[in-house]
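From the pipeline queue, job 12 of 40. The input is one protein chain; the requested action is below.

Action: predict structure.
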Amino acid sequence: MASLTAFEPVIGLEIHAQLRTATKIFCGCSTEFGAAPNTHVCPVCLGLPGALPVLSRRVVELAIRAGLALGCTIHTRSIFARKNYFYPDLPKGYQISQYEHPIATDGQLDYDDDTGSHSVRIRRVHLEEDAGKSLHLGSGASDRHSYLDFNRSGVPLVEIVTHPDLRSPAEAADFFARLRTILLAVGVSDGNMEEGSLRCDANVSVRPFGQSELGVKVEVKNLNSFRFLQRAVEYEIARQTERCLAGDRIVQESRQWDEAAGRTVSMRSKEEAHDYRYFPDPDLPPVDVSEAWIAVVRSRLPELPDARRQRLVQDYGLAPADAGQIAETPSMTRFFEATVAVSGNARAAGNWVTGEVTRRLKHDGRDIDAVGVTPEALGRLLVMIDDGHVSASAAKDVFELMYGTDREAGDVIRAEGLTQIGDVDELHEIVARVLQEHQDAVARFRAGNEGTLRFLVGQVMRATRGRANPKLVNDLLRRELTGAGTV
């Protein structure tokens, strides 16, 4: 009997990204999140008779930018179509989208990670409007009724469709994260998943290893986090594999992820492809994009994250993991490079940006643009560490006291008495006291347990509030423990 590992998963993604615009795709209504229901609406986005859509130039430019960032061919003519289907939050009874003639096709994203080299082909990038939102509140009158909010109706989206090139749940989640980083880097989308600015549908199938023909595809809809995507795909692969092993037929359908239950749930069958009756929208002319406009957009593209990561590794000698974290956003890269310009120590700057700075930002729920210490001030702190004015341990306290204030590192060090202790005689007394208090650790070291030295160094650092010169402490301890004499 075949085993679970005899089947290969095949995964493709359809990613919907809200474009970073102040107004909707075909009207001047606001796209601001969180407004009271049905306040950002007008006859156009409500689909009222006689209301004519007018395409935003900004929307087209952002779509071009997205396509170029993903290595796509930008088409000089694309066409909007009407995708006809009924749903309560679709007021017109159709969605304006691009079908046979999208704005961009045939891209590719190549990248390396710890598992090897990856190449994911982009089938298409097309523009479309978002639908409204159905609200099922589950209390009072909503036990019997659903409510409709059309604030999202007409919000501009790009849909990015990959080929089925992904082969594991982790790879799918990682690709989704990388794509989000690219969209953020080029300013196409804010990528806010909690607000619905970025969501993903996963097309999942399984087939016996060695078989070229694709299995029956199941679509898992509306995944709005990397974790949900990975868990949903893991579950769906296991479900389909078990059905294949049991000799059951996989049904083509749409499913949704139930996070609380940890499983996918059937939404609707897709035994036959939906007949959306696409046809060109008669109210919208073709979108003509000149080669000159494409060239201008291309020239204004910022450095992409992968290229930025490679440059940080090459120019600054950073570890690939640190470089990848710093390269995630242009703001983080600018902060790092400004810190290096002052400190002259790229490795230390990288450690601090990925360590203390990132830790504090996560604690405060902020991004690097709202950091409470300027890169120049951090750079001066790193200089003081390198010059021996403050230990690396005490510098963390200095950083916290600087954070959110205009205090300089030198002022904090003097005011708080955090100057590094480098006097041999002063440290010798503290070392002797620590050794006397920890005779058991001394015995373990002399019995061959070298790791005990780290414990003793830590005790000296604690006794000096992190002010002791750690190298000098290490040397003093080793000489005392081995009887090698004085420093």
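Job complete. The longest helix spans residues 226-245.
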